[in-house]
Amino acid sequence: MALTEVYWDHHIPLPRLAPGLAKIIVALLALLCFVNSYDGEFVFDDSEAIVNNKDLRPTTPLSNIWSNDFWGSNLSSNSSHKSYRPLTVLTFRWNYLVAGDLHPVGFHVLNIILHALVSILMIDIFAILIGGLDYDEKGWIVNHAPKTSLLAAMFFATHPVHTESVAGIVGRADLLCALFFQLSFLTYCKAFNTGNERFSVHWVVVSLSLCAAAMLCKEQADEFVKSSSNTGKIQITSDLEKTYEMFRMGLLRRLALMLLGGLSMLYARWRIMGTGPPAFTEVDNPASFAENVFLRIVNYNYYYSLNAWLLLCPWWLCFDWSMGCVPLIKSASDWRMVWLLLLWCILIGLIGQALCSQDIQRRRTLTLGLVLLLVPFLPASNVFFRVGFVIAERVLYLSSAGYCLLLAYALGLCFCRCSKYRRLLCIMVLALLCLYVVRCALRSHQWRSEQSLFISALSVCPLNAKVHYNVGKNLADRGNSTAAIIYYREAVRLHPTYVHAMNNLGNILKEKNELVEAEELLSKAVSIQPDFAAAWMNLGIVQNSLQKFEKAEQSYWNAIRFRRKYPDCYYNLGRLYADQNRHVEALNAWRNATVLKPDHSLAWNNMVILLDNTGNLGQAELIGREALRLLPEDHTIMFSLANVLGKLQKYKESEGFFLHALRINPNAASCHGNLAVLYHRWGKLDLAKKHYEYALKLDPEAPGTRDNYNMLLRKMDQFNRND
């Protein structure tokens, strides 16, 4: 099964290390590159996949993981991305359980460890692909290319294109998929270490099971695991005798077993996910929406050349490559056509060498290196189905192993044939590894926070509207709305139909009371995307502020029509009705909000206040008590209920709620003031005086408090004179 010693291997200027020591070195390099991301935040897609994903919570049934997609949406939903990765979500849930909450450190540490494990196993993978499959008497893999496999694994461990997969927590899907792919490949190879001429069905079944696990970590796994597993065994040879030997060892049975396993997994996926593909928009992948087939193919190939460039020169890295980051090629005269031609010239040259070279070791290494480079990339190539991105660095995680193998092979040949420049080559290899490590450290540091991640993209993709949008959103979240406006405006300028940027910009302008421009932006957003429920609601808020009550009401109902379960919209609709003294409709709207979201504090509180103001004290008391059963520590509802109970002359109970509210929020001037009023009515004048003074100290301009305080002083003075 194995080849002889690989002739270029001993020319590579690396020590021939014991297998264990080689793996320790590779692991340390992997850790060195990404260890500074261990205490990073949840960034970018982590918000949807982890922070807002209810499937991670212990209160959510575990069975939900198997019926929802990676982002927590039901697979049958039209909004689902059909990314079915239950095992990856299960590891997120494990992180949550171990930490007791959403603490990002544990998530990051596990990602770093997984990358180190994948890098370690790459040594064995490369050893088999380069030198063939061979075992010693103890059952350990014999490495016939120890230096080449070590060099390739070192390149893999330190390649900067992996930063998104390692430092970005959602990249765990790629890490786990790669890990189970490796285990599937190695156990498949184990099937031939049986001590006889037949393969072991047991190990092939284990390999298929691990293949299924890879598929449950990331949905593209079934596209490449089976192909790579087969190439791990089949030698690249024209020798008829060896071909006959493979048939004698059960090649047809093995292929039938693999085919049956693959079809079973595809059928299971079809039953779980259905046949409908996810819906992507033109901004996600503009080339796939080009009407001209020629231009579509040209742009796909241009994307391939950019992916190849990221492997060759991983300096320009970006968290998102959509929305104008990569302008489309629109004619054959575009100078960028050169990159397509160059890519295919190199690929055709490599394929020609892989097929026609007289050197069996070269044929084997080139063939399997190209397979490992290209097959994992196929699901992202737009060949079989439309994907939702232009370029995604994470999809290159496993493909980069093929690149690293080919790079190590090329350097091995250089050391073999150019001994005169050996010293220079050594310096170049060392410099390349050092550059990789430094670039990984810098890039993983950028992934520590959304602020640094988004800002780093401005120099790489200045034409990307989503980059400007994310910078603006991050600034707004940190309270810098003035700077956020600049980036939101630039996002809209770059992409005039960017409705989410319009919506967020409109919200900020609304807060700054620039209502006319806010209405224009939000109106444009809903005209571009009529089912944009959030924009309809925000438009209603602006129109309400402009006293366009009929239009505001219609906007709210449009939002509810497009998103039926929209508690915040019902809350704002209730406020509109309350402003118009349509009290019954306001109460109904707020009740709908609390039905859809039982912990909607504002809706509960507004119901209590409205009933209090309209003299319905008994109903206000019932609503307040119902709200506190659901929100027992909500001091605003306690305050409103205490006011109601005071008017009902239930002074003792009212006092209890006021004091409880003050324990939660001791600096609430209004609470001190109303408690003082309660004591004033109750006849506890000293306590009333004490809390009036607290209220005035916290808020000297509190309306009515000073008048009530002066009235109390006159009353106390009158009592003193009478005494």
Automatic annotation (TrEMBL):
Cleaved signal peptide residues: none
Gene3D superfamilies (alphabetical): Tetratricopeptide repeat domain (1.25.40.10)
SUPFAM superfamilies referenced in this protein's UniProt entry, alphabetically: TPR-like (SSF48452)
Residue span, DUF1736 domain: 276-348
Biological-process GO terms, alphabetical: endoplasmic reticulum unfolded protein response
A GO molecular-function descriptor: dolichyl-phosphate-mannose-protein mannosyltransferase activity
A Pfam family per the record: TPR_19
Lipid bilayer topology: Multi-pass membrane protein
EC class of the enzyme, as a word: transferase
Protein name: dolichyl-phosphate-mannose--protein mannosyltransferase
Transmembrane helix as UniProt keyword: yes
Keyword Endoplasmic reticulum listed: yes
Membrane-crossing residue ranges in chain numbering: 20-38, 112-133, 251-270, 337-356, 368-389, 395-414, 421-438
Pathway the protein takes part in: Protein modification; protein glycosylation
Top-level taxonomy: Eukaryota, Metazoa, Chordata, Craniata, Vertebrata
Family: Belongs to the TMTC family.
Subcellular location: Endoplasmic reticulum; Membrane
A GO-annotated cellular component: endoplasmic reticulum
Keywords: Endoplasmic reticulum, Membrane, Repeat, TPR repeat, Transferase, Transmembrane, Transmembrane helix
EC number: 2.4.1.109
InterPro entries listed in its UniProt record: O-mannosyl-transferase_TMTC, TMTC_DUF1736, TPR-like_helical_dom_sf, TPR_rpt
TPR repeats: 465-498, 499-532, 533-566, 567-600, 669-702
